[in-house]
Amino acid sequence: MGSLVISNKILDKYFGYLKNLDNNAKKSLIIKLTKSIETKSKKAFDIKSIFGAWEDDRTSDEIINEIKSSRIEKRDNPSFV
To answer: Which domain of life is it from (predicted)?
Structure first.
């Protein structure tokens, strides 16, 4: 998610609203804001994980022959009259 950048003038306006909160609400807000800026460790992406998904006991020639033999040629073209 992208970050929202706001000016100090807008921050002062927000603070004007928030300064009237009770201490417990302020503490809760501080905790939530602090947690939102803490860096979370991202899971490292392993490029090897996207390779080797195809598992088969057949040879490449057997697979190619099976694909070719499963093709259907349609010689009879229906007339659209």
So the answer is: Bacteria
**Terminal CA-CA length for the chain:** 56
Strand, coil or helix: what is 38?
coil
The type of residue at 65 is N
Whole-structure pTM value:
0.41
Of 20, 18, 22, 43, nearest to 33 by C-alpha is 18
DSSP symbol at 12: H
Output the six-digit token pair for 68.
Answer: 């070719």
pLDDT interval class at 40 (50, 70, 90): low
